[in-house]
Design goal:
Elements lengths: L2 E6 L4 E6 L6 E8 L5 H6 L6 E5 L3 E2 L18 E4 L1 E2 L12 H7 L3 E4 L3 H11 L2 E6 L6 H10 L6 H4 L5 E3 L4 E6 L5 H8 L3 E6 L5 H6 L4 E4 L10 H12 L4 E4 L1 H9 L4 E17 L5 E12 L9 E7 L5 E6 L4 E4 L14 H9 L5
Parallel strand pairs: 3-4, 4-6, 5-7, 6-8, 11-12, 11-13, 13-14, 14-19
Antiparallel strand pairs: 1-2, 1-9, 2-8, 3-9, 10-12, 15-16, 15-17, 17-18, 18-19
Length: 358
């Protein structure tokens, strides 16, 4: 293994070794707290533009298989891990993580103190960084480049190129693909639904012309304010009186469409162990999440939007209901993979809104 370095925008340097592809990449450094599901993390479109650090210390012990991908290929900028497993052992294993990372040109840094880096991000907030093999990386001349990096408007590049259908169920569900995870699409189809997935730039009138029983705005990456086209689509979908559900990025876009504002979080929620309280039932659920922006509670008009779920750790808004509209949205992933499956009740609620479960 070659020496490799993580250089943060504040000048902090972590020295480690290469593990995946070699080269140099700049991205936003975030941490992911899931103990399992590294393959899902690698292929989750919500990680576009990010340098993802896994807080669990040993990664790769199950290898790579053909079944757990959330998209066709990884889209994250780079991966940071404490220790790689060089000899995976699992009955579904089809290859090693190292080979997979090299195949998809994912630059990876290993051997750094991930606990120290996590503490730094938690105390100072997410920041940009570069993974580099250059021991003489010229920070002084490149610090402005590091600070200026933004993920940007990437949603449409991660969406499907044309609409397609999954499942053959009773209810017709339209999903606007903002970077949708495969597991979410498959979970919806499993609830007796015929799911039609639409490219992110599809106008509302084209979706409504297909006469869906319900509409879902999917998960996805980036700053929701970059999604001007999708926000306008969401406004028209909310006015249609057809049941609408927003998930993750879709949740934020629906909130903006209903007049709320969003803001960047200090270090986001990324992992399969986020506690969320349902305010109606008082019950707390352990959820899977992957986002760095949240709805600004001070911007909510209670005549239009009602808060339905909050994060137990930091009180961030995790769910909204839209007054006088058959619509709701959640920041977490229902029936998540990997993670707890107890939040499937949100999908079941969506089915009920379409007239199901009677």
């Amino acid at each position: 293994m070659k020496k490799a370095y993580l250089v943060l925008e504040d000048g902090t340097v972590f020295e480690g070794e290469s593990f995946g592809a070699e080269g140099e990449v700049i991205g936003e450094v975030v941490f992911q707290t899931s103990m399992v599901g590294y393959q899902e993390t690698l292929t989750d479109p919500s990680n576009a533009g990010l340098l993802v650090m896994m807080t669990y210390p040993l990664i790769g012990n199950c290898g790579i298989n053909d079944e757990d991908n959330e998209s066709e290929k990884p889209v994250l900028k780079g991966l940071i891990i404490k220790e790689p497993s060089l000899e995976p052992n699992n009955f579904r294993c089809k290859g090693k993580l190292e080979d997979y990372l090299k195949k998809h040109n994912i630059i990876t840094l290993t051997g750094i103190d991930t606990r120290e880096l996590t503490r730094k991000i938690r105390s100072e907030g997410v920041m940009n960084g570069a993974i580099t093999f250059d021991a003489n990386f010229d920070y002084e001349n490149r610090k402005e480049e590091l600070k200026a990096y933004k993920v940007g408007a990437v949603v449409e590049s991660l969406s499907c190129d044309e609409k397609y259908t999954v499942g053959n169920g009773k209810y017709k569900v339209a999903i606007l693909d903002l970077g949708a995870k495969r597991s979410i699409i498959e979970n919806v189809a499993a609830h007796d639904c015929t799911v039609t997935v639409y490219p992110a730039a599809t106008p509302a009138d084209k979706i409504l012309a297909d006469k869906p029983d319900g509409i879902i705005l999917s998960n996805g990456p980036s700053d929701p304010s970059q999604c001007a086209v999708q926000i306008e689509t969401a406004k028209k979908l909310l006015e249609s009186n057809i049941p609408v559900m927003g998930i993750c990025l879709g949740h934020l876009i629906l909130a903006i469409a209903a007049g709320a504002k969003t803001k960047k979080m200090k270090f986001g929620h990324r992992g399969a162990n986020q506690p969320v309280k349902d305010l109606a039932s008082g019950r707390t659920y352990i959820t899977s999440q992957n986002y760095g922006y949240t709805v600004d509670g001070d911007s909510i008009d209670e005549k239009v939007i009602k808060v339905s779920h909050i994060n137990v750790n930091d009180q961030a808004i995790e769910g909204l209901e839209y007054v006088n509209r058959p619509a709701f949205s959640i920041a977490f992933h229902p029936g998540s993979v990997p993670g707890a499956h107890s939040t499937k009740y949100m999908l079941e609620r969506f089915i009920e809104m379409m007239g199901g479960n009677k």
